[in-house]
């Protein structure tokens, strides 16, 4: 099963296009983090003793992630980082910090980023943050795609689409 965490406020924007090309018609459980509007972590430490968060708004997302063998995180770059809903989601992974799943090479995570300019520095920072989060969830971050220049252009070039499809084909190969 594939779970998609989508962190763009633009329903038909570039991040959406990148995600659709990457999924290439495959079934996925899709969570729009802007629509979910995750409550922020308040450091209440409830999750330290319990294997869940005191707030229940992300229970369905966490359950889907636990059942998934593929996780796709799709996000625009906002000021060298993730938009607020994705940041709130990452903060809420404290429950997995206290009760981590062992990283499994068969459980793969892909990070799809769209940046207004080059996004190179930001993507490096976001990749590191995602790698740690993925490991806490029991995934290995294996694939990263960066779509730069979205301030100047609105869509994917044919070469970007081809690169995404190639990345996707490898990402969805079942673990042996």
Walk me through the structure.
The protein is of the alpha/beta class and 176 residues long. The protein has one domain (2-171): 3-Layer(aba) Sandwich (Rossmann fold), CATH 3.40.50. 40% of the residues lie in helices and 18% in strands. The chain is built from eight helices and five strands. α1 packs across α8. The chain is globular and about 50 Å long. It starts with a strand and ends in a 5-residue tail after the last helix. The model has no long low-confidence stretch (mean pLDDT 92).
Would you count the extended β strands for me? 5
Overall spatial form: globular
CATH homologous superfamily placement: Flavodoxin domain
What spatial order of strands do you see in the largest sheet? Answer: 2-1-3-4-5
Strand content: 15-25%
CATH architecture label name: 3-Layer(aba) Sandwich
Number of helices: 8
How many domains?
1
The average pLDDT is 92
List unreliable stretches of 5+ residues.
none
CATH uppermost class = Alpha Beta
CATH-defined fold name: Rossmann fold
Could you spell the SSE succession in H and E letters? EHEHHHEHHEHEH
Distance between the termini: 16 Å
Question: Any key phrases for this structure?
Answer:
about 180 residues, alpha/beta, Rossmann fold, 5-stranded parallel sheet, 5 strands
């Amino acid at each position: 099963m594939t779970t998609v965490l989508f962190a763009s406020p633009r329903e038909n924007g570039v991040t959406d296009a990148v995600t659709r090309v990457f999924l290439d018609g495959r079934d996925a459980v899709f969570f729009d983090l802007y629509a979910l509007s995750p409550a922020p972590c308040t450091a209440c430490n409830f999750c330290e003793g319990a294997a869940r968060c005191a707030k229940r708004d992300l229970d369905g997302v966490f359950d889907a992630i636990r059942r998934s063998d593929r996780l796709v995180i799709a996000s625009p770059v906002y000021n060298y980082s993730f938009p607020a809903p994705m940041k709130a989601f990452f903060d809420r992974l404290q429950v997995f910090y206290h009760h981590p799943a062992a990283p499994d090479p068969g459980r793969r995570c892909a990070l799809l980023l769209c940046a207004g300019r080059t996004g190179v520095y930001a993507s490096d920072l976001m990749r590191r943050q995602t790698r740690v989060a993925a490991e806490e969830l029991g995934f290995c971050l294996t694939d990263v795609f960066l779509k730069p220049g979205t301030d100047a252009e609105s869509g994917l070039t044919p070469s970007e689409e081809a690169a995404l499809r190639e990345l996707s084909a490898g990402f969805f190969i079942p673990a042996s």
